[in-house]
Write a structure and sequence with these properties.
The protein is an alpha/beta fold. It is built from ten helices and 15 strands. The longest helix is centred in the N-terminal third of the chain and has 17 residues.
Length: 375
């Protein structure tokens, strides 16, 4: 069975919608800037990929919820659907949910009702969404949600599902990463020898998924499969065997071979262990010359946590539509494990993309891999 993607939406540090984000990435523009969401004086790291929408009043709660609603609105409009989701499930992937809002309530006394912390309540108020689920599957959350959405349609539980992801930067998480990382990263530089670690980003993303063939026009791309697993190999370090198993499962479900893939959207966190493991697995799987093009959007928008996998998928769909793959921004000297990979460097690469693979790997060995094809 296959599924159609009929609507796209996104909000990021480089663009107010999906197309603007894609255009910025293709142009090599990133959203990196000094941290503004809180005073970084207590931390070693001083940069992030924030959405600068706070205004003169400073930080405010419920920004992740606001971006979520915007991304869903965009995806529905792109799909030509109205905003009544009373019969359409909404699945949201996240890592932190509204953790920053709780911090603002605790530290600054921000006015906040507890029911506002649940995305489902905001979705119900804005879209009359009677059925919604929130998945906290670390950095693979939104692709996990996509897999669950495909299952809902396959099982006859829904004809259309909205899948989304959202996260804002929380100071407690920023502090934890600041202490955990040995080096001090000043930019996200996946697969470059100068990479120093993960840099957090903000944003939201949404897609509308339907049963394949339900519409004759307006199909952005077709979802062939989502492979999911949890190898539980290590709390933070990716397990090569688990990553490879997730990819092979996605290929088998999609009925494709590695040689059929034209583009791989890499997870690409910029941490040494992730980059080395992912690049080594890609080199082992993709042996047919010349191999697929590969890129990593975290180089432009930072690590947008729960929504990062779905944002990579949206970028893949737009690459298919517009015939250009964004570069890995800042990549000048690839690590040894990536030496044989066709990483896009310097500028966007013109390409005819028919089939793309999207990687998302989270803490605890939570792996999700999607295969999408051009409509």
């Amino acid at each position: 069975m296959t599924w159609d993607i009929i609507g796209l939406g996104a909000v990021s540090s480089v663009g107010a919608d999906a197309r603007a984000t894609y255009d910025a990435l293709c142009a090599g523009r990133d959203g990196r800037a000094p941290v503004r969401v809180f005073d970084p004086a207590f931390y070693q790291a001083r940069y992030a990929y924030e959405i600068d929408d706070r205004g003169p009043g400073g930080d405010r709660p419920l920004r992740a919820t606001g971006w979520l609603l915007t991304a869903v609105e965009q995806a529905l409009a792109d799909a030509g659907l109205d905003d009544d989701l009373s019969d359409v499930p909404v699945l949201v992937g996240t890592t932190l949910r509204e953790q920053r809002s709780v911090e603002l309530w605790w530290s600054e006394g921000a006015r906040l009702a507890t029911d506002e912390l649940h995305f489902g309540n905001a979705l119900r108020r804005r879209f009359n969404a009677r059925t919604s689920y929130t998945f906290a599957n670390a950095c693979a959350a939104s692709l996990y949600a996509l897999g669950m959405a495909a299952d809902l349609i396959c099982l006859g539980q829904a004809d259309t599902v909205v899948v989304a992801g959202t996260d804002s930067i929380a100071e407690s998480t920023f502090a934890a990463m600041d202490r955990a990382q040995t080096l001090v990263p000043d930019a996200a530089r996946p697969f470059d020898r100068g990479h120093k670690g993960m840099v957090m980003g903000e944003g939201a993303v949404a897609v509308v998924l339907t049963r394949a063939g339900a519409r004759r026009t307006g199909v952005a791309a077709r979802l062939r499969a989502v492979g999911l697993n949890c190898d539980a190999g290590h709390p933070t370090a990716p397990d090569p065997a688990g990553v490879e198993a997730g990819i092979r499962d996605a290929h088998q479900r999609a009925g494709v071979r590695p040689g059929d893939i034209d583009l791989v959207m890499l997870h690409g966190t910029g941490t040494a262990r992730n980059d080395e493991t992912e690049a080594a697995v890609m080199s082992r799987l993709f042996t047919d010359a010349p191999g697929p093009l590969m890129t990593a959007v975290k180089s432009g928008v930072g690590h947008t946590l729960g929504g990062s996998g779905l944002l990579s998928l949206v970028t893949a769909v737009l690459s298919m539509r517009h015939g250009a793959v964004p570069p890995v921004i800042g990549l000048t000297d690839p690590i040894e494990q990536a030496a044989e990979l066709r990483l896009v460097q310097g500028a966007a690469a013109p390409a005819r993309i028919a089939l793309a693979q999207v990687n998302a790997f989270g803490f605890g060995g939570i792996n999700a891999v999607a295969v999408v094809e051009k409509a």
